[in-house]
Amino acid sequence: MASISNAFSLSLPCNRIANSSSDFNPITSALSGLDSGEFSPGRVAVSKPSGIGGRICANATPVMDQPVGEKSSGAPTIVEVDLGNRSYPIYIGSGLFDQPELLQKLVYSLRLVFRFSQRSSYLVLMGCSFDRHVHGKKVIVVTNTTIAPLYLDKVVEALTKGNTAVSVEYVILPDGEKFKDMDTLMKVFDKAIESRLDRRCTFVALGGGVIGDMCGFAAASFLRGVNFIQIPTTVMAQVDSSVGGKTGINHPLGKNLIGAFYQPQCVLIDTDTLDTLPDRELASGLAEVIKYGLIRDAEFFEWQEKNMEKLIARNPNALAYAIKRSCENKAEVVSFDEKESGLRATLNLGHTFGHAIETGFGYGQWLHGEAVAAGMVMAVDMSYRLGWIDSSIVKRVDDILLHTKLPTAPPETMTVEMFKSVMAVDKKVADGLLRLILLKGPLGNCVFTGEYDRKALDDTLSAFCKS
Ligand SMILES: NC(=O)c1ccc[n+]([C@@H]2O[C@H](COP(=O)([O-])OP(=O)(O)OC[C@H]3O[C@@H](n4cnc5c(N)ncnc54)[C@H](O)[C@@H]3O)[C@@H](O)[C@H]2O)c1
Ligand SMILES: [Zn+2]
Question: Is ligand 1 within 6 A of the CB of residue 354?
Answer without folding.
Answer: no
